[in-house]
Amino acid sequence: MIEAYAFLAAFAVLVLLGSVLAPSALIRYVRGWAINFGSERFAQLYPGFDYGRWVERFAVGYRAVTLVIAAFGAALLAWQFNSVRVSGWNAGQAESLPWMYFMLQMAPLALLSLYVVVRYRKALLQPSQEVKRTATLQRRGLFDFISPFAVWFAVASYFLFVAFGIYLDLFVYDNATLSRACLIAIGGVTFIYAINAFIIYKSLYGRKNPYLSKEGRAHTMGARVKGGVYGCIAVAWFISIFGTLGQPGLQQWRPFSLCVFCVITTFISFLDVSSPPRKPDEKELRSNEVAS
Amino acid sequence: MEITIDIDNPIPQFEQLIDQIKAAVTAGVLKPGDSLPSIRQLANDLDLNSKTVAKAYQLLTRDSIIETKGYRGTYVHPKAKSNAKFNLQEWTLRKLGESVAELREAGVTDSEIRNAFAEAINAQPPAK
Predict the structure, then answer these.
(1) Measured between alpha carbons, how far is B117 from B115 in angstroms, rounded to an integer?
(2) How far apart are CA A277 and CA A219, in angstroms?
(3) How many other CB atoms are found less than 10 A from the CB of residue A99?
(4) I need a labelling partner for B97 at 20 to 30 A (CA). Which of A40, A189, B34, B55 fits?
(5) Are strands B35-36 and A132-136 parallel, antiparallel or unpaired?
(6) DSSP-derived secondary structure letter, B4
(7) B68/B54 Cα distance (integer angstroms)
């Protein structure tokens, strides 16, 4: 029964983190951005666009949606708690719950991002209008933002995962050849590693976001690099553990492990907005002046 | 160290880059062996075409201010400080000026000098 209570505790953390704490941090971050320089910058570049009003509308709407999702999460938690106490907990039924709820938590932000990209695609892709453009004459590298050990660990985790996955499939589950599930898992993890490598590369060497201060850009780069590397480690280890928990007698722990993974993923996803953006100094503001 | 490119400045952007890197080397801000950003990184940070940055790097490499070590990246040349003080354009003008003065003394007209100069350039194998 301990696995059921562990699942309930992890699910409660997921509801609290993904539907209350992380959205609050995001709203604080967006407001900080608007107060510090976002409104001024947008007004210069896009006359007639009230950035401050947009931020307030976003804050109210996003908070309302996330509170509804939080209430739904609390209801799910109460239902599962009741199942444990009264009718007996069904691990198979609970297994899909954390993942579906996590998708629901991420849906408003994903839809909003899609809307912003579609609506403001032209504005986001237009070349910089700055007359004076500054850059640091120093090479940026991956290890400026993350320790070599973490990168080494992420790479080692991948190879360990592949080896462990093959071992598990052939020797623990006694399959004659590699099963489809094993191949899908290896392919999926490889894809996630490739996607994260691409995101890290684009963050380090991609086009500069003109709305970010120098410190804000460094913070974003650091968060994306760390998020990418830690995300890869989390996925490789989670799939390995989840595969191991498929054995008879251990399946009851699968909902808990899935819940913990969703909590870690939520934490990594919101790493970017963990601290509010800093106001750029005078010199930097001058360098951001737009041609009249 | 930060560099600034002024888009409104009539000086070409690649020349602004070259001047600022040379100035940093002369002032000792950039020391021999210091690494420089990649062409892609600098072009994206300054929102310039990568060909502009590549041209600046190419000319700096020619003047032995910087050196490229394959995939390891671009570094400040060991003799960058002395090489940065050398002005290739001034040196070329001085050499040509001396030759023109010598030819004029020998009675060659300006149009003959121009024609001969064009022929001499065409007679040379193309520059790499």
Answers:
(1) 5
(2) 8
(3) 14
(4) B55
(5) unpaired
(6) E
(7) 12
Cα(A266)–Cα(A21) distance, integer angstroms: 10
Whether residue B8 and residue A131 make contact (CB cut-off 8 A), yes or no, is yes
Between the CA atoms of B94, B95, B99 and B102, what dihedral angle is there, to the nearest 10 degrees? 60
Give burial (CB, 10 Å; 0-12/13-18/19+) of A261: buried
Q: How far apart are CA B44 and CA A142, in angstroms?
A: 17
Give the position of tokens 């947009």.
A54
**Test mutation, A132, A137, A200, chain B, max B CBs within 10 A:** A137
For residue A253 the two structure tokens come to 């722990």
Q: Rounded to whole angstroms, how far apart are CA atoms B19 and B16?
A: 5
Nearest CA in chain B to A201: B41
The stretches of chain B forming alpha helices (DSSP H) are: 13-27, 39-46, 50-62, 80-85, 88-105, 110-123
Rounded Cα gap, residues A117 and A111, in angstroms: 10
Q: Does A122 touch chain B (CB under 8 A)?
A: no
Whether B2 sits inside 8 A of A204 (CB atoms) is: no
Q: Which of A152-156, A215-219, B46-50, B104-108 has the lowest mean pLDDT?
A: A215-219
ipTM of the complex: 0.71
Convert the pLDDT of each residue in A61-107 to its tens digit.
999 999 999 999 999 999 888 888 887 777 777 888 888 999 999 99
Which comes out higher in pLDDT, residue B58 or A213? B58
Token pair in block for residue A159: 């190879």
Chain B neighbors of A137, CB-CB under 8 A: 1-3, 21, 24, 30, 36-37, 42
B48 CA: distance to closest CA in chain A (Å): 9
Q: Is A80 exposed, middle or buried (0-12, 13-18, 19+ CB in 10 A)?
A: buried
Residue A245 CA to its chain's centroid (Å): 25
Start-end of H helices in A83-210: 91-119, 121-125, 148-167, 180-205
Amino acid at A73: G
Q: Which two tokens stand for residue A40?
A: 């001024």
Structure tokens at A15: 């509801």
Cβ neighbors of A23 (< 8 A, separation 6 or more) are A62, A63, A66
Q: What are phi and psi of A23, to 5 degrees?
A: -60, -35
